[in-house]
Design brief:
With about 300 residues, the protein is mainly α. It is about 70% helix and about 5% strand. α8 (about 170-220) packs parallel to α11.
Length: about 300
């Protein structure tokens, strides 16, 4: 997460695949798990599709938890950088400096320019806080200038590196931009927390629907042949209800995604892409899973229609 060059904070400036998946793919985790006799027994009991759902939702939740941890680290880093700024007093007036706060640097033309050492302490403080989070290179990889421009604004980046001294106005700008970057991450963190709650809710909802689908299918298959027609007709209606339930879950999730907004997020879909770009196959794991379930329910309903025609 970073800011745009004008200083307004936005999401989506990280490198591609910001969060490394927990495994290279969730299929490899599943293959390893299936080697266990206990898991094989579980598959026989709850069904492979239900186990796949558990793995997918778990991977999505782990991605959110990892993002949450990283955002917390960035919030702490900007708090520390703000402390660095607050501890450095600016010049009382432009052009008045003590020798203790000035360094002399060479100009390209051979002249000399006295530069305020406090500006260099600010740059070093930025390196030791914002750029020191463990995931910085993986997620951003920006140079010092690029990072300051992205997080605090291009004009601020130019000023802190080219001005001769730390004026009150410049320090005030730095503090405001640092607080804005911190506030943007706090707002984004609220969205991540809400997403984690949504994953838990939709996971439980999906497991309930899958259990209903599986139990209904097993019930019809175990019905005596002379009662199979009535059972298939009844099951067809129930599968139609299940299909409607799946469609309602998809519609609710789509509305939820559309409302994943804050002033710092340029578009709702960016949240899904930022959170789940490290997952295989899709950036929309909840929508994908319910779409797959709806497809299975439709197949079951059509099977009931064929069965009713055969036994009718």
């Amino acid at each position: 997460m970073s800011a745009n060059p004008a200083g307004g904070v936005s999401l989506g400036a990280r490198r591609n695949d910001p969060i490394a998946p927990v495994c290279s793919s969730w299929e490899c985790e599943l293959q390893a798990a299936l080697a266990s006799p206990e898991v094989l027994s579980l598959v026989a009991f709850v069904g492979l599709f239900a186990l796949l759902a558990t793995v997918q939702f778990t991977a999505a939740r782990q991605a959110c938890e990892e993002e949450r941890r990283r955002v917390h680290e960035e919030i702490d880093a900007f708090d520390e950088f703000a402390d660095v700024l607050a501890a450095i007093e600016p010049s009382a007036a432009v052009g008045i400096r003590s020798l203790e706060t000035a360094d002399t640097v060479a100009l390209a033309g051979g002249g000399r320019l006295t530069r305020d050492a406090r500006l260099d302490r600010i740059l070093e403080g930025y390196r030791e806080t914002v750029m020191a989070v463990p995931h910085y290179e993986e997620d951003y990889g920006d140079t010092l200038t690029e990072s300051i421009a992205a997080e605090l604004g291009c004009e601020t980046a130019i000023a802190v590196q080219r001005q001769e001294e730390l004026s009150p106005a410049l320090r005030g700008t730095l503090l405001r931009q640092a607080h804005a970057a911190r506030a943007a991450r706090s707002s984004y963190l609220d969205l991540v927390d809400a997403e984690i709650e949504a994953l838990s809710s939709f996971s439980a909802r999906g497991q309930t629907l899958e259990e209903r689908r599986r139990n209904l299918s097993v019930h019809v298959d175990e019905t005596a042949p002379h009662n199979r027609f009535d059972a298939a007709v009844d099951a067809r209606a129930r599968f139609h209800e299940l299909e409607t339930d799946c469609e309602e879950a998809v519609a609710e999730r789509q509305r939820q995604i559309e409302h994943q907004r804050s002033p710092e997020v340029d578009r709702p879909q960016a949240i899904q892409e930022l959170l789940y770009s490290g997952l295989p196959e899709t950036n929309y794991p909840v929508l994908s899973w319910f779409a797959d379930l709806a497809h299975r329910v439709r197949d079951d309903r059509r099977r009931m229609e064929r069965m009713a025609a055969r036994f009718g």
